[in-house]
Amino acid sequence: MSRTAALRLSLLAGGAVAALTITSGAAMAQEKTPTPEPPPSADGLPPGAVYLEADTATRTGDVISAAGTEQRVLARFRNSTLRAGQLTYDTNLGLATADDRVEFTDPDGNVVFASHLELDSDLKAGVAVDFATRFRNGASLMAATAVRRSENVNELNYALFTPCPICDAEGRPKQPSIAIQAEKVVQDEELRAILYRNAVFRVGGVPVFYLPVFAHPDPTVDRASGFLVPTPSYDEGRGLSLEVPYLQVISPSEDWLISPQLNTEVAPLLNLQWRRRFADGTIVMRGGYTYERNFGDFDLDGDGDAESNVRFGDRTSRSYLLGYGRFDPAGPWRWGFTAEQTSDKTLFDRYDVRDPYQDNGLYYGDQRRLISQAYVERQTERSYLSIAAFRIQSLRLDPRFASTDFRDAQGFKVFEDEGTLPLVAPLVEARWEPDAPVFGGRLRLRGSAASLYRDEFVGSPVLRAEAIPPGSTFGLPGVDSRRVSGQAEWRRTLISPLGVRWEPFVDLRADLYSIGDLPPALGLEAEAFGRGRATAGLDVSYPLIRRMGRDADLILEPMAQLSASTDPDLDPRIPNEDSQTLELDESSLFRLDRFPGYDLLEGGLRFTAGARATLRWGLDRQASLFVGRSFRDADEPAFLTAADDDPAQLYDPTGLASGASDWVVQGTFSPSDRVRGWAHATIDSSGDVRRAEAAVDGRWGRRNLASVSYIVDRSNPYPGPENRNYEFVQLTGQQFVYGNWGVAASGIADLERDIVIRSEVGLLFDDDCFRFELGWRRDNTRVRPGGPSEGVYIRLNLATFGGTG
User: Fold this and answer.
1) Which among 412, 411, 414, 413 is positioned nearest to 301, based on CA atoms?
2) Closest CA relative to residue 269, chosen from 356, 393, 337, 338
3) pLDDT digit string, tens, across residues 729-760
4) 3-state DSSP call for residue 339?
């Protein structure tokens, strides 16, 4: 053919017309007429155009043939690519045939391989020999032959499906870890499902299971109705358990998860979950129900020794509810709720309910506390408002007996009295900042209001020592409190020519309290009173940097704060509801209000100093150390707390009660991208560590890892059963020994009581597609009704198919 000969054809374009200029090396598609065309597609071609590249191209009647000798024929069209050693196209019938190392890539990135492939005018495979396809998620589907029966149905004969890699890192074939082999496979694109006949499941190439009929969703499906991976477990009280979850998809925005737990020793527990996504929010409701007697480790005969795993009492309904909703419509407003309640304080432990303690709302109930709340928020660039109300259900042991195996006369463990926990309604937080600077600085206004109601009396640390009457407090009502607070803070930043950063600030605050049901010893039933505080001060910092070499530098940042405040007027009648826990660290040391809430506040003349040193080198390598301390012109005895075991003894849990605060020492280090760690400690004036935390994470090899963490609290110097000091160390890690085989271990040790609370050790197999763990677990958590529990655990995770967690 002549070099300039033009061919008019419709090649794999569904009737589109393209003008191809054929040369000995290539042919390029051009527009036939200057008629305006729609915008080009992602591959740069106008709609209907085709790019063809071949060593030779000929035409006989309606059939165009192209071939490649050294390189395969390349055709690009409709954001798709076709490569083959030989390619023929019938312009009259709209059929294309490709042979010899055929590779077809569709617009979604899925790839089809074959030795022989026939395509119709819609770019759909009609017949393929030695068929193989690779999905975007890495799964592969192969067959001896593939036939397209209809627009939505593909049939594969002698097929194999695997979600695992079929080649190693060097491109050599490898045996997939998990595979399903079948005599016939039907892929229904409308159902988005793959159906198997005479399916054999293989693990490492070894057949382990057979099903005459089997089906699972297409790998492109995010979710579909069907059974999920079951979860086996064992517990001395329940016996052998098998949880069989079934997912029912109602619509793209709604589904049900029906997950019964079948037990050999007790009645089944039916778990249900309903999820619904709306245009502007989500609701998730989760619950469980069973009708069974109590079971566990109880002292039924009163001899002081608990029998093991007994069932007693009448059958009764036992259930739980864990739900939440979040809605964020257009505009500044959003709202939500949580609904959390259980009929039995040990139901989650006895039936091994998964993840019952979650943070799904504006506020959260902490570990072993459930919270039911309703809230609404409004947020703009310059303002924030939240209004909430909540109540808490406690599943914790009574703090007086948390470190023992104490039981009441009926053999039950004693739990925290929920009457001592407050009903909060409402809790209001508000902030606002004007757009423009005020006197050259930033003005921030804050407001807060809270109402708390208790049914039963609670003493320290809620009430100050002066407000706790001597002797028995049994029968006293709970103290109710209502508070409204307002605060205005002005701050301006100035930087001198030498680089010194100066930040003068002014803070004004006022609180109004109304306290009810105070102990009669104070001679007051209810009282309303107010307090105020005015503060002025200055923050100073001077960051310095020095180059330590080609790729290293040292940053030194000394900082100081001087502030003077009026008398804070810490009235002993004010309950300490929101300032019981103080985290004195680098971020809070220089705050004007170091307490997290409003009930406690500082005043007087204060000076705070500290310094941070940071060394950076290499690529993201660094180490830092901070040391700081605060000083006050006088001691503050209002920060002292009465010891739970002896209210006459006072101690300082804050580290701020004396004229000099605790030392704050904090550091981080990451000498490589595989090792990182941090540590924090508060040290009192005598050099004793009051609180400390530390953690180190490390990785080596490709998948080996370990982490260790440590935490200690020694703030209460007075011994006794209600002393809440603690010391824990936690370790977790995995080490691969041979290929994909390894060991995994984890544990939490209570060094205060010299006991390992929870431990696991197991054998694992993991090749990034299939992870299997088999091991032994022991749980010594004292809240469990049956005492220590131990048994075998199994964890299974399969690519595409999900896992047991």
Assistant:
1) 411
2) 356
3) 999 999 999 988 999 999 999 998 888 988 99
4) strand
